[in-house]
Write a structure and sequence with these properties.
Helix content of chain A: under 10%
Shape of chain B: globular
CATH architecture of the largest domain in chain A: Beta Barrel
Strand order of the largest sheet of chain B: 1-3
Oligomer: heterodimer
Radius of gyration of chain B: 25 Å
Radius of gyration of chain A: 31 Å
Structural class of chain B: mainly alpha
Order of helices and strands of chain B: HHHEHHHHHEHEHHEEEHHHHHH
Distance between the termini of chain B: 88 Å
Largest sheet of chain B: 2 strands, antiparallel
Strand content of chain A: over 45%
Structural class of chain A: mainly beta
Largest interface: A-B, 111 and 100 residues
Helix content of chain B: 40-55%
Distance between the termini of chain A: 25 Å
Chain lengths: 1056, 471
Amino acid sequence: MKKVLLIALLLGSCLLRVQAQPRVISGKVTSPENEPIPGVNVVVKGANTGSITTADGTYQLTVSATAKTLVFSFIGYKTAEIALENQTRIDVKLANDLTNLSEVVVTANAIVREKKELGYAVSTVAGTDLIKARDPNVLNSLAGRVAGVRITQQSGSVGGSSRVMIRGANSISSASEPLFVVDGIPISNSSFNGSETDIVTGGVDVGNRASDLNPDDIESMNVLKGAAASALYGSRARNGVIVITTKRGKPGAKKMNVTVNSSFRTDNVLRVPDLQTQYAQGNLGVYNPQLGNGWGPLVSGITGPVLDYKGETVQKLNVYPQNWRNFFVTGRTFINSASIDGASDQGDYRVGYTNLQQTGTVPNSELGRHTFAINAGRKITDKLTSRVWLNYVRTTSDGRPQQGSNTTNIISTILAGTPITVDINELRNNLFAPATQAVPTGWTGDLARAIDLNGVQNNPYFVTTFNRFSNSVDRMYGGTSLSYELTPWFNLTGRVGSDFFTENRRAVTRRGTRGRLNGQFDTNEIYERELQTDLIATVTRPLGADWTFKGIIGHQFNQRTNRRSRVQSQGLNIDQLYTFANAQSNVASNFYSRREIFGAYGDFSFDFRNYLFLNVTGRNDWSSTLPVSNNSYFYPSTSVSFVLSEAFPNLGIIKRDILSYAKLRANYANVGSDEDPYQLAFTYNPLTQANDIYTFNILYPIGGASAFGATNVLPPTNLRPQQQTSYEFGTELKFFGGRIGLDLTYYRSLNYDQIISIAVPQSTGYSARRLNVGEISNQGLEAMLTVTPLKTRSGFRWDAMVNFNRNRNRVESLAPGLTEFVTTSGDGFGIFVVARPGETFNIQGVGWLRDPNGNIVINPSTGLRTPGPRRLLGNIYPDWTMGISNSFSYKGLDLSFLIDMRKGGVVNSQTVSIVRGSGLAVETAVNNRTPFIDPGVIRNPDGTYRPNDVPVASVQQYWSQLDNSVSPESNTFDGSYTKLREVRLAYSLPRTIVSKTPFGNIALGLEGRNLWIISSNVPHIDPEANVLGTGLIGEGLERGSIPSSRSIGANLRFTF
Amino acid sequence: MKKIVFVGLALALTTTGCFKDSTLNIDPNRSTTVDPSLLFAGASTQFSLLRVAELTWPVALMNQMWASGGRWGLAQAQYDQTRVRSAWGRTYTDVLKNLDVAIKVAEQAQPVNKNAVAQCKIMKAFAYSQTSLLWGDIPFSEASTGTVDLPKFDKQADVLTGCVALLDEAIAQADPAGKGIIAPNDLYYGGDMAKWRKFANSLKLRILFSMVDADPTKAAAIGQLLTGNAMIASAADAMQFKYYNQPGQQNPRFSFTAIFRGGVQSDWYCSKPVYDLLVSLSDPRIPYFFQPGPAAAPGEYIALNSVETFTTKSALVNLNLLKPDLPEVSFSYSEQLLLEAEAIARGFATGGFAVATTRMRAGVRESLISFGVPTAQADAYAAGLPALTVANYRAILSQQQYLDLFMRPVEGWTQHRRSGIVGQEIPAMTTPQGAPVAGLVRRLLYRSEEINSNPNTPAGIAVDAPQWFDK
């Protein structure tokens, strides 16, 4: 680490050059209404020296003797150039600029463009928005802020992952995760977590690697949503691109700007199931301490002496109604960062360090992250400039909880079965089983205390204390570029960048764990590396008086390498010694893959009088993963932007400043993409295990025999690249000088020739055949409305923003004759995510048997529902999503809140199924558990139906029948919700106070995130949870998820 | 402008023809060649695992060999088959396909590895016949090759006949003097081709017995097998897949209890039809089959009917039968002896009831000993069984064959279905309360994966519809 710091210092010192004979200029910048304007860029013309105005509009700047002119610029105002002459104080009043509300945007391959040029929608989130309320996973800060981008937090686990989806799902066979690009270099957002089975049976939410991005180092995040915007990124851009630009040194009043930020926040579980508080464990009202449920008699009716859950005779049992909530603790997060930056006309530099320490809501879970960032640019000669940027991130975590089903360590499942007569505090202080509690014959050594006398479910504290998942990630990403200006109109840039990380994981289960008595551990090492080089030539030339031409030609090489090794060790001879030699069996497996792409691309834009822009791009890729005969593919895009308000500045409404700005845009694009590596040959796989539907698999070698199996996927013949075509229309309108803004986009995309493994009958001996097949489309509407309803002379300002997205995802076709494609099987119990032609992705499972009128058919002998055929239980994606934010500012005070809404889509909850089936949910205790008549019909012998008149055999049987394994229908809910996502209050200390301190700026902030589920139709849980994580297709399956958390925190930021 | 075009072309040229002679896309994780013994080990391990685990529990509960006590719900006892989820698919993709590929590889070897071909064919016949006896009509002639996209469903009679033919081919190819798939990859016999040939003949006997009620002409073939005297002839010849008391290699029946119940058997209960039969025969196997419930008195065995909820007094399947290193038995000597007794008693082979009785007693004795009953007690019980006569042989043999298969539900279920015409099986059973059909369960239902992708899958068959063999 020392090395990195040393390099940073060296770079910093050579970049700073003292200017000769400096003098200090100061002043104040105001609006036409005489209000101070903070944030105005003040720079010396022709140099890189400059400053920014503070909250009261004042600035101070040291300039060299040669400086002649100062330039003042700020969005929404006309740029002013003031000659310096001999003045030392320059006050400026900026004029409103109602026509040229120009913004620059970083687009594909780090090409910077003015926003008005763009023929496609692009959304930008400023870095300042990411650090006002901090989230350890920076992606969460995008939630509700960008139309067409959906962020779903997967669990409440510390360091948990977040899924990003831009404009709907584009593939039937893989998760539609966007590409992340930092300063022109793609980085990994991997969330590799093993097979589907590994994930749904006791998987840990390992997070997604984009969470390594440090909000403090981000200047801006641009979301390129459509293919036209991202075509130059090539194959991987079809799911959209998130372009991140990191901070660089900025010119300031001093040679060195120091920024220090300190945040603290607390996390508490947002929602836990509502439990009944009356009934003990048992069966059909008879007390039985062997069971982990709430189907016994009223606790108050049990008169001693009875055995309790640990086998001790007690006179009376007590009720502990808050076990679930009491189990979780308050999580704490500290984020401290410091950065130094500066700039001169010779170069710029920035060095940042951020430290994050977090403890989770699950006891003993913690996360730590150190981030070092360096970014330095240098003007070597007038024509040659260079830049180097480097980020080192070390993330460690411990005690992330397991989720899913079918293993012993799932906290939520344990809690969902813990009888209310068991005291969670007693479990906390007594991890081990007493001799009276189901000790297996001949067992010696520590044994987990169970929550039931039968010894089935472990004490959750035993799990969190001993059975821990830990990992560490060492990651570097960065690059270097060299840019040479051959002539003023011809520029050649070369760029090399890489992102690589090594992650070590270990999950241990201690000896004496119920269900895994002999203990086990699982060791994983993951290495990923991405290397990219770019060579870009840029030409900018006027073509006559009205036209300007800009042409870019580039070459790209991209290489991705993946290496993984895993050892599964079972049976520990010595307790808590997790070494391979101490295990009775070790099964090792490894994996390696490498893929390469060569790309050549061109981007040509024509600018007519600065109001009509035409852009044409083309790219050809050569991929290593496709058949040699078919590995080259070309794809074009074109886009048009027309700024109406500048073309016709004298039109009535424009002139009267009603419509201040109007732009129309349209584009069409095609993107091709390749295949995964190594899919073309018929292969034999070395097997590590023989599988069963349960988890106790047989590991090879068995009896000394190793085993191989021929592939289960028939390899493709004549494979072609996958294709996506899309078009988009949009408009940007600003009214009343920007008081009202509207950005509207309609888009449609079609993905075809997808490369999918299509299921073939298993009787063929294979499970699938790989081929080009299937079409899936998305069409949608994005709208963003910004309004400033109030803006007073006193400085009070109210800004409101609404963004809305409706995406219609549709599977257009599958292979001929194929009616259904199972993308993901949610768990072992018959719940699937399926694609059917004419539909979007749906959850499918056994539904209740219904009569022709749709009434549930009741079994007349039991009064219970009857499982029927499998059917679609609902769309996994929302019909629409909306974010509403409001911010109020007055002088240095800024209050804002963000509401996030989702309408439609379904959620299937295993936790709901368990708390109800175990008789612990509050609804299982209503009406003294008197059997009732379930609304439905009974089939008459003649085939007609009559209303059900048979009461359920017992309330216990009623709720047990609703279990997910019988039919997931009753545990599948409308996933609509409204959430108060974020509230923040920021305060910048007035200049008058700050000026008496050594600080340049002091800002305080209070923040709250994920504060309140305002409305939801899912009982007991946060509707956002999803066990599938970011790597698998599908959402809306909750399996033993850790409840999400509500965070409240404070932030202190000051600059020197 | 010219310059740009030139640079562009130059860049483009450097990248055309990419990866032409590249080895980059050659998979470093998998092989493009393989030895048949490696495929054989995987296929047989997977097959054994399905038999001993996924197929054991639902079949044992549906066929009332074991009772669930409602511990995992009563649905399985009521013929719910959702937990038989992967057996169909894995049998075809992980067992039969790999055996098929192994045969092709062995046939292409120079010289042809005939013994490996024979071993794989025997396993194929075993797997296909088992699959057919569970599901009825199944893909056979067009299955597991990858060459036919939508395999047709062959009639059960054709499948079983085809299995016998496969066994005949294998018996002809097997050469005890030569080497085929040997230890450790032959997990059954360690490459002993003489034993493989014996098993092939015994398996033929079992398959022919499953056919003979529907096709009486098979009686002659059964007779020939007995005359040929080339079948399993001792406990040492038995076909079994070994498990070891080491993690990852334990019998899954043990792992199940270890994983879900911390090693405390509380899932599999004593079923009434089995218990009542044992009591009626004063059978010494009761304490070897079962253990009293934790709250029951020593020696107090309380059986459950198939949809009854357990209590702490309910008797359980004996933990000794769920040990980690117990093998999965594919063909036992006792099964052999009892089938021979049946062949003689039914007149398919010579010897008459006297020889049939001797064979039957030997088989019963062998069975008792295999469950741990002391030899003297086994001898006494076997000797005490009535001599077989025209009037009693069917009942006595069916009872003993059923009990002999107590821990082998896959074969036990076939045995029960063939023990009498529909409604007169031995031992007698009634349809459990809550079952969706009136009759006893007689088949597994085709899996949705196959139904959804293969239009040839027969539709609309009830779980109590008898299969072809079931007469």
